[in-house]
UniProtKB/TrEMBL annotation:
Transmembrane segments: 62-80
Signal peptide stretch: 1-23
Protein name: PDGLE domain-containing protein
Keywords in alphabetical order: Membrane, Signal, Transmembrane, Transmembrane helix
Organism annotation: Synoicihabitans lomoniglobus
Keyword Signal found: yes
Amino acid sequence: MNFTRFFQITAALALLATLGTWAATGAHRGWTQNQIPVTVHDEITGIEALHYQPGFVAGVDFLAGGIAAATALAAAAGFASRRSARRAATA
């Protein structure tokens, strides 16, 4: 397997993993959260309180970072194919 194909496959897998993680954690359109807010209702006083539980919700910053990484890998595939085409032309 040459570098061009390797970078193309890696870019596709990185994009799919990013989109899958973002969708699986709720497709949150805000920033990434590492604590999930949960509203708790006290039955005795009737007061609602906001508590935070540990968890992970991927946001748009996670999505943008993953897409940027996949784009960089795809660009590397383009440069690798251009380089191998030059080598083939000169050989």
